[in-house]
Each structure stands twice: as structure tokens, then as C-alpha cells.
């Protein structure tokens, strides 16, 4: 039993689970996973509900990840109602898949022990101080989010149980040598090409755009000319970080803190122990009698390692003479822990100790005394902590002042700003989807576009951006949503229509050239008219080359013989190319190291496919109901 606990808590999948949980903290915070204030269900999965609050948190978390990765370029996508609806539906599908996996794991009887959960929590960096688990820090973080330890343990149990099934599915896949060879032949194959690239600008001079064209484009795309409601804000921002420059910490306070918290700057005593385990099984009395018999042999001088190897039911440690490596207080079962730390000297052996796993005999084999860091080693950390505490105290004091003055004098921010000695900042005009990064918070945007601020022109209440930052804002300029007139957008429409017609003309020309090439006719005169000529590209790879992506994709769709030897490609900027395949170059021989890497990647892809197929099968057989109000 102890063998399984040790392997589970120290294996690679335990580390992977920890990594996943750490990412959860980074992106969402502890609390976002553990709270749900409402009961409105957006979906039910085999009778279990997924609440609107769960969906909203998952949506906000995933959107924030995308925005942090892609920046402002993603904002335009989220301005599309269709994209937004598809995005939310994909998030809901992911939540449904997670719920199905959780239910299946429970049905299969998968379990995670309390010891595994404890080991996971102990190793999480969020709860460590000086490289060691800090229980006070652990309790403080949970308290800050308003949760009990049991809530967090329940969450971990669900996630770790779910990950057991996911790992079993994804890690069971493999790739055959033949598949690796085939993948190498396809992925590392290169091709030689001839191509003619012509800019659509070459055709723009002959394009005419009529008023009818412009009006038709305007009417057919009227929704794209709708402007978003926009506001310009004046605001006062108060943050703990900014206040650190307005507070100070006396050196005497640093030393006093150190002396009052010496226990936090020490390294726990570590003991290396070996044990002999006799599992109770069906006959507890017999197991106890055997353990006491082995203890008698030890008292008479028998070798502990030899007895452990021959008799211990913990086969993993038995192979090493019963060695369990170093342990710290509270790492093991309470009875085991008490007995191990009661041993006085290296070489001492305990009496028979009973735990839920059976009967143990414990030997102390090494001892590392507790150590305490010096004041100089931790003074910097303490100073930062006290500085933060002082800034936080000042933060709450000024927050109350800011809220009071902004409410008492609602038609200006000057009095409130002066009261807390902070500047009034101004934003640019922005919509909900183009808010500056420092103001892009759902709570702030809801208030900024509210009738109270827009129509009544009042100061907002205190708006919390995060645990250490608040703002008070007011709208100083407002532009309502409207549809731009044709005159406003005529110039842009004319350019768009002209570019589209030029591209169509270029494509028609290119298709004509391609057809003549297929027929074996000369096209030199047509190329000369456009001042272009055939260019060559040798050994073009599928990825990583310099040729435009559209040309590469077309090139790798061609055949060496017949009409499929040549085709037309259109690039993202509207240029058009005629592409002809000249030769196919075989992939180089697969090296051992690259072969192993490719095999692993193929296995991972297959594992992901198996996992998705498993999810699809579970969903096909499940009762899933999705709210029509989604």
C-alpha cells in the first residue's frame, strides 16, 4: 500500500497534475473553480448541472488566455456575434466533456487517496515559502478566497481522478514503425516548382467601380458599417503597487518580525527510516503475531534489511532493505509518523506500530536536524512583506476616502483625486471590444457603459479590478452606436470593390494561363504583357520555406503527370500565381533520434484522437440537455 502511495506521489503523472493545477491558479485563481453563486443551469449531463456561472468563468478564463497570447488582434474576432456565439458553445462543449470524464471516472471506481492529495498540495509553489510548504500561507490563500480546506481538497480530488482516466487514454496510444516511415516520407518530402506571380494591382488600372457597385456593396454589407458604442473615461486608479513608494519600513520592525516568526524560517527535521510492513489481510491477529515475531528476531540481533527483504509486504521498499528515504513530520500515517519521530538515535527500532495499512516495524537510519535561516538571509523577504502589508493598509484607508469623496461630489473627480493625492487619467474613445488593456475588465466595462455614467454623468462607485487595484471613473465623452452613412464609407467601399474586382481579373488571367499550359501552348507573350516570367523554386519544403503559404499548399496538391500538374493559387494579399510541379524529391533517410521524436509525436496525436473519440462515445450515450437560452 505504501508502495503505491509513494509511486503515485512521486511519479511523472503527479508532476503533470501539479503543473496543470499551477496553470489553473495562474489563469483563474483558486476561487474561480470553487465558487458558484447561482443555480441557473445552461446544461445538464446525465442529471448533473453545469451552471451559468461555471460557463461564464470558463468563458472569461479562455478568452483572457487568448487575449494574452494574441493581443489586440483577437478583439476584432470577438466583435463578431457569430464568432462569440461559436466560442461560448465550444467552451460549453469542453465543460460537458469534462463532466462526462468525471462521471466515467467515478463509475470506473477510480480514486485518489488523501495522501496523494496532500502530497500534491505540499508541492504546489503557491503554498511554499523558501522552497518549503508553508501551512500558514496555504491557509491564508484559501481564506483570501473565502474557502475551507475541505473545499479545495474536494476540487483536487475531482481533477486528479479525472486526470487518471485522461492519462490512461492518451498514454495508451502508439505509432508503428511503418507509420513513422510514411509520415517521414510525406512530411520531409520536398518539391521543385516553376511559378508565375502577378500582382492584382496590374489589373487595377482597367477596373471601373460604378455608383451601383458601391451601393450594392453597402447594402449587402450594411451590418459591417455599424459602429460600436464608445466612451471616453476619466478615472482615478488606486493600487497597492503604486502605494509602496509612499510607505516605509523601519529596520527594527524587520528584526522584530523575524524574531516573532522564527518557525517560518527553518527547515523541518528530516528522518530517513526503513520499515517492515505486514499487511493485515483477512487475519489481523495472525499479521500482528508475525510482526511481533519479527520484532523479537530483531531484538535478538537479526539484520533489519535482510528481514525486510524477506518478509515485508511493501515490496518496493523491501528490495532496498525497507528503506523509505527521508520523511518530514506529518508526511506519513499519524501512527507511523508518531513512532518514527519518537526514535531517539540512528539505529533505534520501534515496537510494532499499527496503521490502516497493517503492522510496521520502523528503524531510524539517518537524521537531519532542523535548521533556521539567519536574519541576513531573510531580511529582504521580510522587508518586502512588511512593505506590502503597510501599502495594503494604506490602500484600504485611501480606498475608503476615495469612495466617500467620489460619492459626496459626484459631478467631478478632482476632489476625490486630491483627497488621495493621485492624478486623474483619461482614456481614448473605446468600445467594449477595444478597451485599453488597463481598463479591459468586465466589471469596469459594465459600469462604464451603464446609463448612470453615460446619461447621468456621475462618478462611479469603487470598481475592483483585482485584489490590489480599484478605480473610480466617469464618462467624459460618449458616442452612441449607429450605422455609418454611405458617404462616410464610400471611399473605403470603392477601394474594397476595386481590389476585389482586380483580384477576380487576376485570377481569370491566371486560370487562362494555366489552361494554355495544360494544352501545351506557349504563354510567353501573355507573360511579357504583364512584365512577369517563370521563376523556379527548388526543394520547397512543406513548412519553413520562403515561398508564400498559398503557393506551397497548391504545389503539394499537384501531380507530376496530367492536368493536375499545374494550378492557380491566390495569396492572402490578393496576388495570384500559376504554379507548376517540376519534380518530387524523396525525404532523407530517417535518423534514429528524429525517428523516436516523430514516433512520440504521432503517438501523442493518436492519443488525442482516441481521447476525443472516447468523449464522443460518452456523449453519444449520455443524456445531455443544453438550455435554449444559451
Automatic annotation (TrEMBL):
GO molecular function: peptidyl-prolyl cis-trans isomerase activity
Residue ranges the record marks as coiled coil: 45-72
Principal place of residence: membrane
Domain PpiC intervals: 268-366
Membrane topology field: Single-pass type II membrane protein
Entry-linked Pfam families: Rotamase_3, SurA_N_3
Subcellular location: Cell inner membrane
Gene3D superfamilies: 3.10.50.40, Porin chaperone SurA, peptide-binding domain
Gene Ontology cellular-component annotations: plasma membrane
Spans traversing the lipid bilayer: 12-34
Family: Belongs to the PpiD chaperone family.
PANTHER family (UniProt xref): PEPTIDYL-PROLYL CIS-TRANS ISOMERASE D (PTHR47529), PERIPLASMIC CHAPERONE PPID (PTHR47529:SF1)
Protein name, entry field: Periplasmic chaperone PpiD
Amino acid at each position: 500500500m505504501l508502495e503505491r502511495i509513494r509511486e503515485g506521489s512521486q511519479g511523472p503523472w503527479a508532476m503533470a497534475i501539479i503543473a496543470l493545477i499551477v496553470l489553473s491558479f495562474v489563469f483563474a485563481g483558486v476561487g474561480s473553480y470553487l465558487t458558484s453563486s447561482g443555480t441557473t443551469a445552461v446544461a445538464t449531463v446525465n442529471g448533473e448541472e453545469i451552471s451559468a456561472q461555471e460557463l461564464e468563468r470558463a468563458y472569461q478564463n479562455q478568452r483572457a488566455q487568448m487575449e494574452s497570447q494574441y493581443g489586440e488582434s483577437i478583439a476584432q474576432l470577438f466583435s463578431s456575434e457569430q464568432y462569440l456565439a461559436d466560442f461560448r458553445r465550444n467552451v460549453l462543449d469542453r465543460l460537458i466533456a469534462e463532466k462526462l470524464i468525471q462521471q466515467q471516472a467515478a463509475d470506473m471506481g477510480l480514486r485518489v487517496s488523501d495522501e496523494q492529495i496532500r502530497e500534491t498540495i505540499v508541492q504546489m509553489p503557491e503554498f511554499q515559502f523558501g522552497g518549503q510548504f508553508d501551512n500558514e500561507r496555504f491557509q491564508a490563500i484559501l481564506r483570501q478566497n473565502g474557502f475551507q480546506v475541505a473545499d479545495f481538497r474536494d476540487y483536487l480530488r475531482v481533477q486528479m481522478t479525472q486526470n487518471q482516466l485522461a492519462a490512461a487514454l492518451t498514454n495508451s496510444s502508439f505509432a508503428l514503425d511503418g507509420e513513422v516511415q510514411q509520415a517521414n516520407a510525406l512530411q520531409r518530402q520536398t518539391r521543385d516548382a516553376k511559378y508565375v506571380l502577378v500582382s492584382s494591382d496590374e489589373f487595377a488600372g482597367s477596373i471601373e467601380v460604378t455608383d451601383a457597385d458601391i451601393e450594392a456593396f453597402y447594402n449587402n454589407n450594411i451590418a459591417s458599417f455599424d459602429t460600436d458604442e464608445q466612451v471616453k473615461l476619466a478615472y482615478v486608479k488606486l493600487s497597492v503597487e503604486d502605494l509602496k513608494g509612499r510607505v516605509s519600513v523601519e529596520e527594527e520592525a524587520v528584526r522584530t518580525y523575524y524574531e516573532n516568526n522564527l518557525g517560518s524560517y527553518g527547515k523541518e527535521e528530516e528522518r530517513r527510516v526503513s520499515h517492515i510492513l505486514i499487511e493485515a489481510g483477512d487475519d489481523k491477529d495472525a499479521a500482528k503475531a508475525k510482526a511481533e515475531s519479527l520484532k523479537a528476531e530483531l531484538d535478538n540481533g537479526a539484520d533489519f534489511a535482510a528481514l525486510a527483504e524477506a518478509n515485508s509486504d511493501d515490496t518496493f521498499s523491501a528490495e532496498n532493505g525497507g528503506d523509505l528515504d527521508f520523511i518530514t513530520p506529518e508526511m506519513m500515517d499519524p501512527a507511523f509518523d508518531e513512532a518514527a519521530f519518537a526514535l531517539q538515535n540512528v539505529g533505534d527500532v520501534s515496537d510494532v506500530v499499527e496503521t490502516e495499512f497493517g503492522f510496521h516495524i520502523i528503524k531510524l537510519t539517518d537524521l537531519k536536524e532542523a535548521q533556521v535561516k539567519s536574519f541576513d538571509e531573510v531580511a529582504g523577504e521580510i522587508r518586502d512583506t512588511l512593505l506590502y502589508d503597510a501599502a495594503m493598509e494604506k490602500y484600504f484607508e485611501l480606498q475608503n476616502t476615495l469612495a466617500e469623496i467620489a460619492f459626496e461630489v459626484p459631478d467631478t473627480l478632482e476632489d476625490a483625486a486630491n483627497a488621495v493625492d493621485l492624478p486623474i487619467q483619461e482614456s481614448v474613445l473605446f468600445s467594449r471590444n477595444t478597451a485599453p488593456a488597463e481598463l479591459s475588465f468586465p466589471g469596469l466595462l459594465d459600469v462604464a457603459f451603464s446609463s448612470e455614467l453615460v446619461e447621468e454623468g456621475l462618478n462611479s462607485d469603487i470598481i475592483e479590478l483585482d485584489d490590489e487595484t480599484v478605480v473610480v471613473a466617469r464618462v467624459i465623452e460618449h458616442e452612441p452606436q449607429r450605422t455609418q452613412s454611405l458617404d462616410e464609407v464610400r471611399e473605403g467601399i470603392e477601394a474594397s470593390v476595386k481590389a476585389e474586382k482586380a483580384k477576380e481579373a487576376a485570377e481569370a488571367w491566371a486560370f487562362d494561363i494555366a489552361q494554355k499550359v495544360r494544352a501545351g501552348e506557349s504563354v510567353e507573350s501573355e507573360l511579357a504583357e504583364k512584365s512577369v516570367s517563370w521563376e523556379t523554386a527548388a526543394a520547397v519544403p512543406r513548412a519553413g520555406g520562403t515561398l508564400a503559404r498559398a503557393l506551397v499548399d497548391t504545389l503539394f496538391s499537384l501531380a507530376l503527370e496530367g492536368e493536375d500538374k499545374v494550378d492557380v493559387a491566390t495569396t492572402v494579399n490578393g496576388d495570384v500565381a500559376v504554379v507548376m510541379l517540376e519534380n518530387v524529391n524523396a525525404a532523407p533517410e530517417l535518423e534514429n533520434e528524429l525517428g523516436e521524436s516523430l514516433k512520440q509525436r504521432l503517438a501523442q496525436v493518436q492519443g488525442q484522437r482516441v481521447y476525443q473519440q472516447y468523449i464522443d462515445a460518452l456523449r453519444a450515450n449520455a443524456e445531455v440537455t443544453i438550455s435554449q437560452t444559451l
